[in-house]
Amino acid sequence: MKTKIRILPENLCNKIAAGEVVERPASVVKELLENSLDAGATEIRVEVEQGGKKLIRVMDDGEGMGRDDAFLCLERHATSKIRSDEDLFRLQTLGFRGEALPSIAAVSRFMLRSRTEDSLEGWEIYAEGGTVKRAGAVGCSSGTIIEVRDLFFNTPARRKFLRRDETEMGHVGDVITKLALAHPEVQFRLIHSGRSLIDVYRHTALPERVGALLGRPLLQDLVPVAVEGPDELVLQGLLAQPAASRSTSASVYTFINGRYIRDRVVQHALMEGYRNLLEKGRYPVAILFLSIDPALVDVNVHPTKHEVRFRDQRRVHDFISAAVRETLRPSAWLSRQNQPCGNSTIPVSESNAKEAPPFQPAVPGTAQEHLRRVQESLANYARTHPEGSGPAVPLAFPRAEESGTMPREVERGFFSELKILGQYRRSFILAQDGDDLVLIDQHAAHERIGFERLRDQFRQGRVDRQALLFPAVLEFDFRESALLKEHLEEFGRLGFDLEPFGGNAFALKAVPRLLGDAEAERLVRDVVGEIALVGKSGLVEDALDEVFAVMACHSVIRANQSLSQPQIEALLRDMDRVDFKAHCPHGRPVMKRLSLNEVERMFKRT
Ligand code: ADP
Ligand code: MG
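A: This is the predicted complex of the input protein with magnesium ion.
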């Protein structure tokens, strides 16, 4: 009997797969570069014409392919990277599906030339729309060259979706940037119609590579991260201090085991780490490498592999957010510099720094080593790029040159040691730090202090309370009251004295002293609402941060209030005692700095 079901011809399968894998020139570049990296290349050159629509040529000095492999690589599901099921859960390579080359070849005019180091001649294969037209031995240097011409020439519907050359080039540049950030040991060059767009040398330390790819001025705002967690979890890289925030998340680069990943869990954890430091709708600049046991993460969930699945999502999330938060604390950053293994109190000579080994994001267990190297390069950068060549020194962090040698007390005294110039419009404190003019928003500053105090008191389990003269009876719906009952103890620790009052009602008998009684009722409702939103008990502490922010809003010092010299001094002293100084709990800036240079430029005196 005749069947209606047929096995699809190989070539059609490849075209279908191409629909998933090859969306635009940038996806071709990504696949080819990943192959070059997997082949151990140390130098990769990408040449592109017409945004990749006309030509994409990738050349590498990797291990190359012998004759048989050169033919095999165009077969579907042909890969040298995994052999068994288990390999799939211990991936060390960027590729593993064996789909990229046949898919790309199916929708282009494709040329491959490759030679292994130990063979005398190389092999060249030419295919059109996935059909091999010519093949033969050629003389060539060892490594691989792949040319992809006239992408989608045989699938016009897809070709129509391609954008202007510049747009496609933007995507290509983006792909190379991400791969180049993760592989400082490899040289990358990108040439568009004869113009060199990216050129980064091998063996650069991470900060240098970040400077070359994302812009030099950014380096002044970066703080190195290197934190080791349980189960061989390691987080390293660079984080920008909050003042260098962006309006989109495009400058967040996250990598898992050396692979660029845009994962929801990781992104959320990063934002958690910045909680209360960024204004609403702002995103940090971050280049973060997470190393994790490959058995604990599944990268095989999505064809373009930008998402992963963690065995223990919560654990990874909490590790990242804690590591970020810890890194952004100026005091932690300072004390870490003073650890003997950091070695950073010894000034690094230029020659020393140049000899420093390259940054290896994927190797766990070297977090301190990494931290030392990154600090060296940052310090080096600060020396070779004197002040005025970029944005002002980070607000909340000690200067790079000072931090290595400064004892902790000095860091505490940053604000108290400012020279007070006066008050402006009864709202701002004017002060001087060296040659810089410093402006402080007194209300935002006080709010920040109140926030930190409340949180401190809360953590130490003794929030000062004030009993209400007339207890208020508050009614809730059943879901809220259930939540309230569940978290009654936490409310107690927050300084609220709440007692069940029958049904869904509660009597409010005391409130935190710092707050006063006016807003107590609304606050309790807001907190309950907040907890209802997040649902999980594990998030309660985060929700409490919101509460502290609301509470701190009722701080004593407001805008439009004149302050005496002793009051200003007291405020500055208090500012030195809290950890974050750059923003109020709502994310508004607390302090701004104008360098002499900037002031002079305002008056055209330079
Ligand atoms: P995958 O990368 O998933 O294995 P590909 O279709 O991208 O699948 O490549 C198929 C195989 O071709 C790879 O497994 C590798 O052995 C070989 N290969 C591809 N590109 C290169 C290259 N630039 N250098 C050396 N070998 C390569
Ligand atoms: Mg591949």
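Residues 430 and 439 are 5 Å apart (CA to CA). Residues 165-182 form the longest helix (18 residues).
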